[in-house]
Amino acid sequence: MTTTLITGGRVLTMDPDRPEAEAVVLSGGRVLAAGDRREMEDLAGAGTERVDAGGGVVMPGLVDTHPHVMHFGMLAGGLVDLTDAVDHADIVARIRAKAATTPAGEWIMCTPVGEPHYFLRRNEKDLAERHLPTRWTLDAATSEHPVMIQAWAPRMPNVVAFNSAGLKALGLTAFIPDQVCDVQIEKTDDGDLTGILRGPVTNYYTYDPFWGQLLTKLPPPQLETAAAGTLAEMARFTAQGVTTAYEGHAMEPEHLGLYRHLREQGALTMRVLATLDVESVIFYPFDPLSDEEFAARLPEFAAQVTDMSDDLLRFNGLTISPGGPCFSGYYATYEPALDPFGRRTRGTRFISVEKEEAFVRFCASQGIRGNMCLGAFREHDDFLEIAERVVQEHDFRDQSWILQHAITITPAQARRYQDLGFKVTTSAGFAWGKGAMYGERIGEHAWRDLEPLQRLLDQGLELAGGSDWGPKNPWEQIELAQTHRFAGSDRRNDGPDQSVSRLDALRMWTSAAASVIGWDEVGSLTPGKHADVLIVDRDPLTCDIDDLPDTRVLRTYLGGEVVHDSKELTA
To answer: What does pLDDT average to over the chain?
Structure first.
């Protein structure tokens, strides 16, 4: 049994009974104790591995309660990475290298250019040429493979690029109109296709009939690349200090199957708690279930998500996602808002209120934790009316149901969720990445109810943070919980209902997050907890707010084992 003594830095335990210490002892994958250095040295004894934190800060591993580790890992797995491409020649060189190892005729898929997933701080307009390459430029990389530079949600309108072989594989020729449905097909002055398509051309959260037909002609993710992409994504998370993930949204049986596969292979480098989404509404084609099919699925899926025994992979609860994002025009508003193409809309309901009530009744009556993905005012009101009726028949208030997203929420709605015993997970990045868009599409009045983190805490709701679409830096998310700044502008919605203290922001990613998801063995350095420990280069409680996003994780422990190491510490 390995015992590790960490000294040489301030210890933030996130344990209210002893918030600070001088040293911590890890043994057998658990926290043995945290306290005064001399006491911990005596406790650790001889033969202990000794680690000097080098003046850094020792703290619990972070808990990301909305990361989409698998989704975004699968999304990028096997793709040519263009996120940091600088110009067209760079793009061509990367695709050419991939073509050299890819059988002729197979698709070569590329990531978008820039910073996923909002592409605000960097996108294709930051290439030297200020735009994506046309098909003729991409043809210089390969003429034997169809090539696509993808567009990822949530940004919409968006842009994709194909080479000539890609256009041919999709059956696109110059005879096609300049626009089909909402998809704009770019052409030269002579009417020739350039390979550039614009509009609702994202790979999910898009239901444009024309683009959907093109999506069905593209290759689906393969198990090998999906597994490799997920492992690479986990490595990125642990390098940022995340040791536990709550995969509570858009998880389908094949996703749980892949996590089980990785667990069986001993490949997980972080803890994962997952649910099943009872009806997927994100990926095309979305063919709604009948009420009978939906009712039959509930017990079938419930049987797969009741395992809380494993130390690395757990399953608990069912999720329902009635609505979609504002970027795509699906946000359920009372007053008409603008969709991505300037049309007035009141949003879209993906799942009927009848199915939603069936879900609530099933979970409440069976003692299953319900997870609600709701972000818009109308979505909250529809659900709360159902839940307040059902709770009188099947009291679920002690089951710790979770409200996910909560992008906009009024004071009255927050009170009603608290009365129902809910806990909340949301992303401060929603305001950062979409604040300006909400002001333009809905109106600036939406900002008073956008990510009101302090309002939720004031109502007594336990609150956790997640990265979702980004920024994918948890330390920046902790900063955004305080500053509420919008990307690409000087705007903020940092009023008294929004901004939280630094301590509460950090708790949203440690002890409070653990409580929200119901994994009591993580989130603090309390004796007996899992030895998920970070050594970071600055004090996240006292450093300048502008410096917080630059926090470097020097080492990450999972159960006392090193899963990320910057090689800057001595043992």
So the answer is: 96
